[in-house]
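[audit] Reproducing an earlier prediction to check determinism. Same input, same settings, fresh worker. If the tokens differ from the archived copy the diff job will pick it up downstream; this log only records the rerun itself.
[audit] input (218 residues):
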Amino acid sequence: MRILILGGTGASGLALIYKALEVYPAGTVVVYARSPQKLPDDIAQHRSVTIVKGELHELDKAEAALDGVNAVVSALGPWLGHPAGHPIATFYGELIILLLKHQIKRFLVLGTPTLRDSNDKRSLFWASTIAGIKLTARSAYDEIVAIGEVMRGKGDELDWTIVRVPFLNNNDTELTLAGYVGDGKTGVGLSRKAFAAFCIEQIEKTEWVQKAPFITDG
């Protein structure tokens, strides 16, 4: 197994890398990162880790990182001061073309409840939370919505999953509940370790292919 991880220098991305190395000890983890110097030494020097330095707009470097890859898992998401123009969604649109070119089917990306799903039910908590995000962090709101539009609009030939998460924490648990917003069982928090465990587990599963589950702490 050869897995490309995007957003690997952030806390959630690091959790993805560690979990991928644990689950696939004989595999290779490719990390595509703008600032690979942020990676801890135990990852940067790991024999099973390949690092490719590049930015979202450097599609030639992104394509080079896809060589021999079986699946792509992304922890990319809006950040403090996120720019307008949804750069992540734009990148995903170009990346989907490259994935199809290289016959790579599995693509898991990070999302939030801001990205709606037809299976979601009414939730006063999330409705008010999303309204607050739209009001105070419009660029981040627009980015998440655009990610959903790109994945659903251009990913017909891919086995994509949008893993929607609530408020992330650093709890030491990998237990998750997967469902939909307002279903009466999902909560409002999720550990980064649980996010990573769910994503890596889903690489070879089909339950959530072309779906957008909402996952929370189990």
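[audit] rerun output stored. Observation attached for the diff report: The CA atoms of residues 1 and 27 lie 5 Å apart.
[audit] end
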